[in-house]
Design brief:
Blueprint: H1 5-17, H2 19-25, H3 42-48, H4 61-65, E1 73-80, H5 99-115, E2 117-124, H6 129-138, E3 146-150, H7 151-159, H8 181-186, E4 209-214, H9 215-220, H10 226-231, H11 237-247, E5 249-250, E6 257-265, H12 268-275, E7 281-283, E8 289-291, H13 296-309, E9 315-318, H14 320-328, E10 332-338, H15 341-344, E11 352-356, E12 369-370, E13 377-380, H16 387-404, H17 408-419, H18 427-436, E14 438-439, H19 442-446, H20 451-461, H21 466-489
Parallel strand pairs: 1-2, 1-3, 6-9, 6-10, 12-14
Antiparallel strand pairs: 3-13, 4-10, 4-11, 5-6, 7-8
Helix pairs in contact: 1-2, 1-17, 1-18, 2-17, 5-16, 5-17, 6-7, 12-20, 20-21
Amino acid sequence: MKTTVTKLIAALLALLVCAGSFCALSGCADTGTPSDSTAVTSSAVADVTTDNTPEDTAPTALSVLGERDFGGETVTFYSRYYNGVWKSDLMATEDDFDTLKIAVYRRNKFIEETYKVKIAEKQSGAATFKSALERLVTTGDESFDAVYMSVTDAADSAQAGLLWDLHDIERIDLEAQWWSQSCNRSWSIGHRQFFAAGDISTVDNMSARGVFFNKKIIEANQLESPYDCVKNNTWTLDKMFEMANTATVPNPNGTGSSVYGISAQTSFGFIMLMASGEFISRNNEDDIPEINIGNERSLAVVDKLMTKTAGNDGIFLGADADVMAHFRNSEALLMPEVLYHLITLRDSDLDVGIVPSPKYDSEQEEYYSFTTCYGVTCLGFPQSASGDRLERAAFIMEAMAVQSVTTVTPAYFDVCIKTRFAPDIEASGTIGIILDTLYTDLAEAYKWGGLRDKVQSAVANGTGLTSVIASSKKMANSAIKLTVDAWEKAPRLNG
């Protein structure tokens, strides 16, 4: 997700291997003591952290933006209140003492003291964030200067003309390492972009999707390690199903399996389709979204998925709780899920690994780690902010993003590796791949023609894509045009 790759690798490695950092991310204190596991050596850590940039040359707010004095003015973020793991992580207090919040507090304190400014947050409890934001913007409300929201909310707000184009704001350098380049590519339409994500927030890391595997079941069946498959470019749909079929153990009574090859939510087929790079929409050379699904390759992917899953008793598809129960009880080899489950599995005795969602075949150039637009958070600026207020807010947001590179992002790693022990050093690389290849599709946020849900249903039910696309493509194209027109007509900062 982020472009500071090795630091993000470290961050998520810390999530994987450290109980204390697990607690930090879930809001509990990092007060435990080291376990008795085998310690990670300095040489092992060196193998993980490949970023050789000297510490004294790492970007900081001062080195990038220079000095500034805002005379004690306040920059307020208007944030949707997210339950659970996706709650706002922009703020912390001096009384917080878990790893992440300490880093957030120190970052914000540095920014406040360096630039003589106050950082504040106003949280919205509104069920519909876009509607709440629209009321505030249209009334010229000046109680907030920036917005922190889900991509779904941001997309709706952009289409409603409530946000400024980030390309028009001089202080925001979207090409810099502290802003996610994969998100920039996903969230641009017609060379306009109204929201962005990066090192300033870590919440979005948890929605990144991979495939968990049970190492003991791998060993018991003498299967190739999925880690080696990733290294050898053989981690494909065929390989995944081959391993799953080998590991499946049917129940003696003939119903279901005592060990499933795959335990997954009912969206499994759709997620694998996305992992194959066959998204609902893609932008053309003019940066305009077009319906992508339905091409020859996407039909081939769906055909393979239906062939491999139809009547396969070794694949369990169901609700999240049941999926997790099978995996926790060592009743499943593979579990495609979001990285948040690194936290939920922390109290289990499982020996777990994690790899990206598989490629369609070895010819596929890269992995695609699809995630929902609701799970990814982003930032933007409301149209009600202008002049000095907007310039100040943009400066401070950029400063927070830059400073996060050396504070928030590595906080997991620096504390966790030094005080905890890593059972699985290989996960550092695969988690890095997952984050680097995280992809969202605005077709999901905008629900163009309802095509996203229809495709998911078609793949899940084994009914194929051709008829679904034929009946929905015209409606989807009309909806895309409305979005493109709205983005084009959105007010420009400079008229």
